[in-house]
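Summary for the lay section of the report: proteins are chains of building blocks that fold into shapes. Here we show the chain for Protein-L-isoaspartate O-methyltransferase and then a coded description of the shape we predicted for it.
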Amino acid sequence: MRAQVLLCPTITAYGRLYCAPRRLHRYNSSSSSSQFLNLNLSRFSGALFFHMEQFQSGTGSSGKRGMVENLKRYGVISSKRVAQVMEALDRGLFVPVGSSAYVDTPVPIGYNATISAPHMHATCLQLLEDKLHPGMRALDVGSGTGYLTGCFALMVGAEGRVVGVDHIPELVDMSIKNIEKSVAASFLKKGSLSLHVGDGRKGWQEFAPYDAIHVGAAASEIPQPLLDQLKPGGRMVIPLGTYFQELKVIDKNEDGSIKVHTETSVRYVPLTSRVEQLGGF
Ligand code: SAH
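The coded shape description reads as follows.
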């Protein structure tokens, strides 16, 4: 362990009340290091207390409905479409067996990566919602489990095009298997959704330009190929920073200029090389 930060004076994430972990271990290669990454620090620190009992109640359809209901109740989800999509795509099919699928926390998925917390998926879907109408194109960089990639596919439909890219081949294989079990399977079968092994910092030129680009790992700066592959009128959501990170929303104007705003503080695993990631950063 190299560095720690105190976030919340009480509690652990697995107590009765749900709050920020007392410590975040920065880039620690142990198996627990990634379990508190990919979350929104302001939503995750103190103000918001989700009761685990409520949030964990049920499995399958009742579990995911409970998860979405809680995200609505606490003001994370305000969009009906996002609620419908997150209810339709069962997070339980995307987390490792035995993990708490419907609790609002990131879950380690191996390879020093996590599936993002549901509130983070919901936030990013809402930020990108206007660029995820039927027929539009979306790129998910650092697609991991494929959960958000699958949500994109449900939103843009069979006339749209969704591409997920991750640099860990085992995760890409797993994401394909996850999607195959889910309501998004038909998009994969018919070819409007595909998941690829690659360095996401280079984007995925084949289907560019994209209306929506989501980056699921924190970059130190915005990769130029991703800006190039964003359609004029399109939007990118990307966590930026190393230790202190902010979720940036980047809009590309019709004349090609860009406008950037900061949405919130977050904590994500880094957008890096495969060697760095597997070595524990
Ligand atoms: N959004 C996903 C995963 C988030 S974890 C989910 O919720 O399931 C971040 C992911 O980014 C990991 O799967 C990691 O392997 C991937 N990643 C990190 N650097 C990358 C890079 N340079 N290219 C592609 N994927 C990368």
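Put simply, here is one thing we learned. Residues 60-73 form the longest helix (14 residues).
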